[in-house]
Amino acid sequence: MNNKFTFALCTVLSVLFLAYCKKDPEPAAQNTVTYDGTLYDFNPGTFPMPDFKDNPPTKEGVALGRMLFHETMLSKDGSQSCASCHLQSHGFTDTARFSIGVEGKKGKRQAMSVFNTAWHTNEFFWDGRAHLLRDQSLKPIQDPLEMNETLENVVSKLSSSESYKNQFIRAFGSNEITSEKISLAMEQFMNTIVSNQSRYDKYLAGEVKLTASEERGRQLFFLEYNEFLPAQSGADCAHCHGGFNFTNNRYMNNGLDADGQQSDIGREEVTKSASDKAKFKVPSLRNIALTAPYMHDGRFQTLEEVVDHYNNGIKKSNSLDPALLATTNTGLRLTAQDKADLVAFLNTLTDNSLATNPAYSSPFK
To answer: Does residue 343 share a domain with residue 312?
Structure first.
C-alpha cells in the first residue's frame, strides 16, 4: 500500500469518525404555551357567590381580560382603552360629565362605574341595552362617539401580536382570536373587580365604629320617609339603594326632569314602553364619593347637590317612581345638619383598596 493511498484512506476514516461522533443538532424550540383552565381564586367576602353562568372566570381568562381592558389597540387610533373612561382611582368611572371619544366627540351619558358587575341582574348601560356584560364590553369599541373601531380591525390588530395569541391559547386553548373570545375575557376580568372593603363594611364586621355624624347619617339613610310624622321621617335612600350592593337592580325615574323636559328617554328607547320614559338603571352607591359627577347625565358635581335634589328638587312626571312622588308634597324636610350627616355616611361607602388594587391596574406598566 503506497503512502498516498494510506494518507487518503486515513483522511476518509477520520472524516467518517468525526461525523459519527458529532452531536445531534439541537431540536427546534417548541411553543410550550398551553391552555390553563385553572379557576380564578374569586373571593366575594361577605357577598353571596354570584352566578357566572357559562363563563366562570379562570386565572388566564382574567389575565387576558385585564390586558384587553387596558389595551389601546381596541380604539381606532390607538389612543384609548376601556380604562381611559373607567378610571380605577375614581371607582372605574370618568371624571368628565361626558367622556371624550377618539375623534374628540362627546358621549351622551356619564360613564357608569365598573365594579361588582358579577351581581348585576338587570342588563347593562344606563338604559339596559346590553343583556350580558360580555355584550356590553364590545359596544364602546364600535360606538362612533367612543372608540370608533370595528371588531374586524380589533381582531386583526390583536392577531398580529404574538403575546396576545399566546394568551388566547392559555385562556381558550387556541390562538384564534375572535370578538366572542374578547368579550368573554373582558367579562371575566370585570366580574372580578370587587368592592367590599369600605369603612361601612368594616363597621358591619365590628372592626370600626362610626362617628356620631356617620351613625346619624346611617339612620337617616335607612329610615323611611313619613309625611305625617316628621320626627320619625328619614331620607328613605334604601328604597332605591338597599342591599349589600346599595342598589335595587331596577330602572327608575328619579325626578330629574318634568314631562316635556326629558330629552333623554332612557329605558324607553330599549323597551319601547312609554311607562319606561326617563327611567335609568339605579347605580350602586358604593364608592359614591369617588365617582362624581352624578346622575346619567352628570348634572350634579357634589354629593350635597344630590342630597338637595332628593330633599326638595324632585320634579313630577308620568313615570316618576311612586315612592319619590309621595315625598313631593313636603320634601324630605332635611335640615343642614341632616344633610351633612347623610353625606358623612355616604363617605363611609368608599373602598380605598379598590382604587389602588394592583390586580385591576394596567399590566403594561
So the answer is: yes
Say how far apart CA 359 and CA 82 lie, in whole Å: 16
Tell me the chain's radius of gyration from C-alpha atoms: 29
Contacts of 319 by beta carbon, 8 Å cutoff, 6+ apart: 253, 274, 275, 276, 277, 278, 279
Percent helix, strand and coil across the chain, each to the nearest 5: 40, 5, 55
Nine-digit cell string for 276:
319606561
194, 221, 255: which is the final residue of a domain? 194
Name residue, grid cell 386553548: 173
**CA 210 to each of CA 57, 289, 348, 349: distance values in angstroms, whole numbers, following the listed order:** 36, 17, 8, 12
Q: What gap in Å lies between CA 153 and CA 182, rounded to an integer?
A: 13
Question: Which DSSP symbol is given to 269?
Answer: H
Do 238 and 282 form a contact (C-beta atoms < 8 A)? Answer: no
Contact call for residues 123 and 247 (beta carbons, < 8 A): no
Does residue 6 register a pLDDT over 60?
no
Burial class (CB in 10 A: 0-12, 13-18, 19+), 336: exposed
- The C-alpha atoms of residue 96 and residue 106 are separated, in whole angstroms, by 10
**Count of structural domains, the chain:** 2
Report if residue 52 sits inside a domain: no
Nearest to 198 by CA among 49, 86, 345: 345
CATH number, domain of 333, equals 1.10.760.10
- Same domain (yes/no): 224, 82: no
Look at the block and give the residue holding cell 500500500.
1
Inform me whether the pLDDT recorded for 5 exceeds 70: no
Domain boundary among 194, 212, 239: 194
Please provide the average confidence, as pLDDT, over all residues in the chain: 93
Note the pLDDT of residue 93. 98
Per-residue confidence (pLDDT) for residue 31, from 0 to 100 = 62
Q: Any idea how long the chain is?
A: 365
- Is residue 79 in some structural domain? yes
- State which residues form the domain around 181: 59-194
- Give 310's Cβ-side CA count (13 Å radius): 26
Q: Enter the pTM of the model.
A: 0.90
pLDDT tens-place string over residues 56-114: 999 999 999 999 999 999 999 999 999 999 999 999 999 999 999 999 999 999 999 99
